[in-house]
What we know:
The complex is a heterodimer. By secondary structure, chain A is of the alpha/beta class. Chain A has six helices and five strands; from the N terminus they run βαβαααβαβαβ. A five-stranded parallel beta sheet of chain A has the order 4-3-2-1-5, with helices on both faces. In chain A, helix 5 links the parallel strand 3 and strand 4. By secondary structure, chain B is of the alpha+beta class. Chain B contains two helices and four strands. Chain B has helices spanning about 15-25, 45-55; strands at about 5-10, 35-40, 60-65, 70-75. A four-stranded mixed beta sheet of chain B has the order 1-2-4-3, covered by helices on one side. Chain B is globular, with a radius of gyration of 11 Å. Chain B starts with 5 loop residues before the first strand and ends with a strand. The interface between A and B is medium-sized, with 12 and 15 residues.
Amino acid sequence: MSEKKLAIIATKGTLDWAYPPFILSSTAAALGYDVMIFFTFYGLQLLKKDLNLKVSPLGNPGMPMPMGMDKWFPVLGTAIPGMESMMTMMMKNTMKKKGVASIEDLRELCIEAEVKLVACQMTVDLFDMNHSDFLDGLDFVGAASFFEFAGDADITLYI
Amino acid sequence: MSDFDQELDARGLNCPLPILRAKKAINGLESGQVLRIIATDPGSVKDFEAFAKQTGNILMESAENGGEFTFLMKKG
């Protein structure tokens, strides 16, 4: 079977948006795809050694809240300090209970499956980030490197 | 239920873990050997069909019993 290629651009750095790139990449790798994820802007948070990802109910009316809170909880309430941490904790607990892998685990599975994780150097400069905060062995690259891989990819996704 | 060479308990795991664990287990098998997978994720029924189609492994059996799904996957 000839190898297919999947190229993904990951641009978001919240707990919920961390799932699609890692789920799709690990699965594609298991199906025999050659996979690259190009992490840019807030997506770079997903490559930090210490992941501290959060999910926010603020400005996110599609987020189901526990105990029917979305039915009676005022929208402004989602801006209360501590809401983000609380919702993140609840989300993580729910995921664990439902057998959904943690982002740490999925990322590790991607690395094991030789998914290429590359980071946008421009973003590192823009936000004054340090290479030492990121996973060891990453390539820090620019847009041209993405196209070198994605140019003949079978599937390209922007997440 | 036919014979199998190895068993994978993927009960309680959600997408995409059953597929990833199965792939890993199949990697350790010889061609022609059979992996039996037990899962509780209802999505895994279609997913193991799709996995077999795309990887050249053969889904010999797919059964449901009281909320548990059992698959026999032969390494291609």
